[in-house]
Amino acid sequence: MRDFIKTRLWDNNAALVQMLGLCPLLAVSNTVINALGMGIATVTVVVITNFLVSMIRPITRQEIRIPLFVLLIASVVTVIEMVMNAYFHQLYLILGIFIPLIVTNCLIMGRAEAYASKNPLWSSVKDGFFVGLGFALVMIAIGAIRELIGQGTLFSQAHLLFGDWGRHLTLTLIPEYSGFLVAVLPPGAFFALALLVALKNKRDANQKEKARQSHKATTSNPEST
């Protein structure tokens, strides 16, 4: 189970490794709350889609599986869009067209085709959750970097997602900050993503080097074992 989770959250992260779903990842991650809202929507869609695809896989003919998967994804996204419009209307207006565009997210179709259509129900649900969670965490991290550098705050406009009590969640980390416009514009998203990819690659390289050194020490001195 640990390897199952680690593979989806870190080793084969949909955003940092596979580079899937970059359109919403970069477009709506200008604040933590925007990123969190889109992340929750994406996780919900991929989990429900994996569940439905796995449930109907015994009766799904190969010839129609892709159109059927697209129809399922579109149906789930439509329901999520209606829920957000009803209960989180202001956030829904901010996220705009990127909510229905979840239908075109390669991450969701990829998991439906590559995993859910070939595996049991519970395993597919877990796969959808952890793959979606890995994607959402990267989006939130990018949102935090961009919001902090661009506005000097974290969790601004939290009331859009959490209601009136969310107004108390805003953290002003740099008082009287005039802001850095590039961070909240599209180029800022690319810089933040590049930073996260570089940090991940650096950590992975360090881990591999430590493992290599440990293996070398063990093989050169067998008595130590």
TrEMBL record:
Enzyme Commission identifier(s): 7.-.-.-
Record's subcellular location: Cell inner membrane; Endomembrane system
Superkingdom of the source species: Bacteria
Keywords: Cell inner membrane, Cell membrane, Electron transport, Membrane, Translocase, Transmembrane, Transmembrane helix, Transport
Gene Ontology CC entries for this record: endomembrane system; plasma membrane
Enzyme kind, highest EC tier: translocase
A biological process from GO: electron transport chain
Membrane topology: Multi-pass membrane protein
Composition-biased stretches (Polar residues): 216-225
A Pfam cross-reference name: Rnf-Nqr
Principal location class: membrane
Segments for region (Disordered): 206-225
Positions of transmembrane segments: 35-54, 66-84, 90-108, 129-149, 177-199
Record family assignment: Belongs to the NqrDE/RnfAE family.
Function description: Part of a membrane-bound complex that couples electron transfer with translocation of ions across the membrane.
Subunit: The complex is composed of six subunits: RnfA, RnfB, RnfC, RnfD, RnfE and RnfG.
Protein name: Ion-translocating oxidoreductase complex subunit E
Organism of this sequence: Marinicella pacifica
Gene (UniProt): rnfE
